[in-house]
Write the structure tokens for this entry.
Amino acid sequence: MSDTAVRVQGLGKCYTIGTSRESSQPMLREVLADALISPLAILRRLAHRLRSGPVPRAAVAEKSPRHFWALREVSFDVARGEVVGIIGPNGAGKSTLLKILSRITEPTEGRVEIHGRVASLLEVGTGFHPELTGRENIFLSGTLLGMRKADIHRKLHEIIDFSGIERFIDTPVKHYSSGMYVRLAFAVAAHLDPDVLIVDEVLAVGDVAFQRKCLAKMEDVHRRGRTILFVSHNMPAVTRLCQRALLVSEGRVQRDGPASQVAGAYLLASINRAAERSWPYPATAPGNHVARLRMVRVKNDSGVTTETVDRRRRVGIEMVYDVLSPGHVLIPYYEFFDESGLCIFATRDLAPEWRARPRPLATFTSTAWIPEHFLTEGSLQVGAGLYSADPYVVHFHHRESVAFHVADSHDTKSNAARGDWDGPLPGVVRPLLAWITESESAPSLVSLTRPSDG
Amino acid sequence: MIQPSSGWAPLRLSELWNHREILYFLIWRDIKVRYRQTVIGAAWAIVQPLMTMVVFSIFLGGLAKVPSDGVPYPLFAFCALVPWTFFANGLNQAANSLVASSHLITKVYFPRLFIPMARVLTALPDLALALGVLFGLLFYYGFRPTLGGCLWLPVLVLLAFVTALGMGLWLSALNVKYRDVQHAVPFLIQIWLFATPIAYPSSLLPTPWRVLYALNPMVGVVEGFRWALLGTSHAPGLITATSALAAALILVTGAFFFRRVEKTFADLI
């Protein structure tokens, strides 16, 4: 057998969008009525079909506005043992892709080869019946997901153990809390042991501890050489679990590469790709009667708007705002978010110039400079805001104003705080710190290591 | 290997066999849930044919004086109602089964054929209970069915099962696309009831017409039941054979039709 676990070639899925008359749920009576009214038309259609064969589906679909391609020309290979994240905005075709891979629906074109046993978890608690007990549902769900009855018997204790709800295992699941339900469901899923595991957003439910447990289990599955396809909106989970990610958008694979890069590109693209943002119309600009935002931008050392900054150079975030009502003490601030949506740090203007001084009517420009050698490589989102402290009023707060990308230099000679190390570096920031190493002379070292001699 | 298919798909019976445990658990689930959710549980299996028998006996046997081949009318009717109830419940359940299982169809793959099949098979325990009552009634009226006759019962039940499944496959698959099928099903079953010799004997029909009549597979089942248990007239060999052929035809066409449209279920449901 080859080393490819999943091979997808030119996959496409076309849906018909219903109009009011020919809705997606046609009524039998309409069809029968049509047949009664115009039997000849139907006969003619049939005769035509027989003569010329069925109309090629793709040809029809291409032209008709009532057809919608949920997926188009999707091709990728997944090697055995690889963990691939599939990310993308809602409605991009991710779920359709998973449904085709799990054989729930058939593609319109293209083909998929899957080597080995597939298990797909497209929901929490597949096949669970509320009236049945936890134990009974383990058997039902396990069988539906592809386990053998004998396997379930063998693993039953392990599954119940993993779920952590032994006490309620003989209670109908309708009496379960949602947490217990999810635990039991995942316990079943975790013991499927397929060659290829397809997971859709299972981690979106459950508390933090449980999510961690799920991720750990998936890492365990991966260590045993299984192949995992994992759809998620949880970018830290994707980057932690997957080496590789596919960005699916508008039914196509837009990017395919290392998970952190694809996730970063997706977040940057999905939220905001601009390094400058302005609000030309006061009516739509963030703000209130005291102050109103006009523009936010990312600029480099020389004051030019830039999307990409070298981490060895400083970067400035600038906001321009109008003060519409005089006499307020105003404090501008910024928040910085990384690719996973984590707030790395926040900063506010504590410079003495306007620290406690009421502002006059004017247009102000406030810039915060982030020092060189501080940020780590990746994409950053900037939120901009303005508030007054006494009384506490937020005049505007714009969560996703601008974004920029921090590029790293792999030139090891320059001081990029990576030294000779060329691999990935963990952490959300990478300051160039002052390291001091002191050494003591040899005799005291000897006395330290062999105190009994003294 | 997944790729678009068009036209008539093979039945892939080996796949059904490999996944047979799923069928077992679907039946097991339905039976468990049924008896857990109902107050009188098993009694429903008996009440339904019994009440119908009482109504038929009063109005048709008593008032309308419908002939019953020399058998006490209540026994005559009940003997037919037992396999009929199995068929009618099985078909009704099967016809709605796919729509009722939409949560499974859109979330996990397994041979869809199991869904209507499980629903028909779930009606079997009810049939067993009703058969028990039927035997009680037989003894009460002083009938002693022969062993040879009883051995035919599983065959006749199979015939009813094949008919219910065949029709169930057609109707459940149609119901996914045309939701008004579910409104037509009770109506269809009602008409079918009168097109089957349950309240009356098929001996009312002139002989040449009986074979045509037997194209309704339930005619063969019901006549077979009466012959096997009540010993009425001679063996309905031709009728049962015709019915078996018709049932097989319904099942085979139903299965192929089902397989043909199966791939669209998840998109339409």
About this structure: Confidence is low (pLDDT under 50) at residues 19-24, 53-63 of chain A. Chain A has three domains: 18-65, 71-271, 276-407. Chain A has eleven helices and 18 strands. Chain A touches chain B through 43 residues (CB under 8 Å).
